[in-house]
Amino acid sequence: MIRMEMYIIGVDGGGTKTTAILANREGKIIAKKEVGPSNYQVAGKKKFKRLLLDLIDNLTRSSHIKKSEISKISLGLAGVGRENEKKEVHGILNDVGFDSIVENDAVIALEGALGGKPGVVIIAGTGSIALGKNDKDEIARAGGWGYILGDEGSGFYIGKNALIYALKEYDGRGEKTILTEMIKENLEISNIEEVVPLIYSERLTRTDVSNLAKLVFEAYRKKDRIANIILNEAGKELGLLAYAIIRKLEFKSKSIDMSLIGGIFKEKEHLLEPIRAAIPYNINFIEPRFPPVIGAFLMGLEKIDEEVLKTLDYEVKKMGSGL
Predict the structure, then answer these.
(1) Residue range 5-26: average pLDDT?
(2) Percentage of residues in the chain with pLDDT exceeding 70?
(3) Deepest in the core among 113, 239, 261, 272, taking most CB within 10 A?
């Protein structure tokens, strides 16, 4: 009797785009598709269902794979964090005959970056969150509470603090910083106090504030003391997120792999030391091994072995920026 080969679909569903792959259990990628955003909260159940089913249909048709040959659909989705949301997505796929694993998109970033192995990831862009997995495959998170209640160490946090220190200088209760002039030039204002109505009227958006982080990195390179303080504090906060994960998961090893993901880490050399200083463990900073969509695929495997990882290394290299 010939054993039918089975396949896994991995989906990275984000707020700006959705990437999916269809691969066999050995890690060979058969098909890949990219479509528009699929944030579950933004799209709503009906639109999300149509997008997801169309995506599966496209992958199976283009690869000439029968839907009965799909053993698992493994998804990491923005806007899906609570159990009731996961159950709704499971229900959509169960109704059309698919077994599924559903997690938040941060979980597949963790799985992809570490190749399914134990360790910690810190994700810092506009917001911030840390996740980790131990050798028992237990997963924990810290942070991700949004810009009002959290997001310490994020782009928003760094940009907001630049504004705070500039206003302190203006008041005469803070030291001089080149950030003040840099912010005024960037926002095209003549006086730093003009930033106040921009913030409270929300004409200056969260993204706009986050974009000010690049001025802090620039000022740091110019030896500005306030920029140094802001980045040191941001790094410390990101380190504390990671340390909270390490304590929760009770890592046995004192040497832990850590991967840094997100726009803030484009200039990570300014943040590594304060992150490391906040964690009383030996931290091995490693580059993310795979993109999140590969993390989704790995999440769908019963077992991850080195041969699968080597095949995926080859497949990702072959596809280049296509993933």
Answers:
(1) 89
(2) 98
(3) 113
